[in-house]
Amino acid sequence: MSTTYLIKNVSVVGGTPTDLLLRDGVIADPADAPSDAETVDATGLVALPGLVDLHTHLREPGREDAETVETGTHAAAMGGFTAVHAMANTEPVADTAGVVEQVWRLGREAGYCDVFPVGAVTVGLQGERLAELGAMADSAARVRVFSDDGKCVSDAVLMRRALEYVKAFDGVVAQHAQEPRLTENAQMNEGELSGRLGLAGWPAVAEEAIIARDVLLAEHVGSRLHVCHVSTAGSVELIRWAKGKAAKDGTWDVTAEACPHHLLLTDALAETYDPIYKVNPPLRTAADAEALRAGLADGTIDIVATDHAPHPHEDKDCEWAAAAFGMLGLETALSVVQQTMVDTGLLDWAGVAERMSYAPARIGRISEQHGRPLEVGEPANVVLYDPAASRTVDPAESASLSRNTPYRGMELPGRVVATFLRGRATVLDGKLQ
Ligand SMILES: [Zn+2]
Questions:
Q1: Pick from 363, 390, 422: which residue ends a domain?
Q2: Cis, peptide link before residue 49, omega less than 30° from 0
């Protein structure tokens, strides 16, 4: 028998405090609470539907020194997530039914968070020929999101074919928008600062040119495009324009994500020359961050995705140009969204639930189980969050195997108190169970 939880006096998605009963994996009527139910006093806490991350790097198979499916899903649970999409840039690459089924199975065995593997668009992420998209879609992992993330599908013909192919099974191509020739050896946002620091610049147009091309391709073939980690104000403008066009047409669709680090941090941090701030796409200007926040608030950017990218210290504790791109994100995402979007009045908790649970579940086509409203009869995927708490981020406390958080030493608002996956507590009293 699984434990039955009676959560008392909780603000469900920011509403008036009420009780929630989690029994046999689903949300039940609190009036039916059995006398032996475990009571959780949730006064002051907000209940949100279990968070869904469309963009996580779990590193297994191949880089188990950076993260494993088990440690990555521990970090996910600690961050309030009940589902994550695991990116395909593993070793071997997740470009066959065999590899995606392996990752999916490892997630089930660990049991902390549902893992939905992303399939590679091209064989070995080489950008030369399409991977077995249909076989991955038909596999036990039921892949619906395809991405060469880490690399851009820069060949327009391959991108067109991928967009055409995924229509057969209602899939989506998630593009890492980075024009390769414009970003050769690029290290940080191109601007006055990159010139002064002597670090090769990464121009905004390298992202925007690919997004412009891809929305036109998605329209041309009538397919679904998702834009990963939007980082520039110009990209937000392009997506706003494309969404207007797609809404009128109704035969194609474009969705987009922003990462917490791009909402909060800026390229000024590169002045430290500390590669903890090195990420792909790079941290941009304060004006870009402001445009991302506005785009997320008005729905131009559909979702927040973490781009959780663990790296062992030897890949980060070196000079800037030699360091790996990427930063941790799962355990801090909700706090950063609170700071940048909720505490600023740009979003309420219903808006956060939409952008961190409902919408990513819809885009990934996992809405039968995740991103559901917290209503009787629905799966008991729930996070309890204390927005009044605050903490100083200590990398040593991370559940991830890696320590590369750009928020170390920073005070962030909020704390995940509990996470429930189908009614089982994966986190309770802020501790992994
Ligand atoms: Zn990427």
A1: 363
A2: no
The answer, as to whether pTM is greater than 0.85, is yes
The answer to the question of residue 315 being in a domain is yes
Annotated catalytic sites, by residue? 307
Q: From the CA of 373, how far away is ligand 1's center (Å)?
A: 29
Per the structure, the complete domain to which residue 223 belongs is given by 50-363
Rounded to the nearest whole angstrom, what is the distance from the C-alpha of residue 39 to the centroid of ligand 1? Answer: 42
Pairing between β-strand 145-146 and β-strand 38-41 as defined by DSSP bridges = unpaired
Distance 210 CA to ligand 1 centre (A): 13
CATH of the domain at 11: 2.30.40.10
Q: Which helix (H) or strand (E) holds 334?
A: helix 333-337
Q: Which of 316, 331, 363 is the last residue of a domain?
A: 363
**Position 147 in a domain:** yes
Distance 37 CA to ligand 1 centre (A): 44
CA-CA distance, 286 to 292, in Å (whole number)?
10
Residues 69-106 have pLDDT tens digits of 999 999 999 999 999 999 999 999 999 999 999 999 99
pLDDT tens-place string over residues 12-44: 999 999 999 999 999 999 999 999 999 999 999
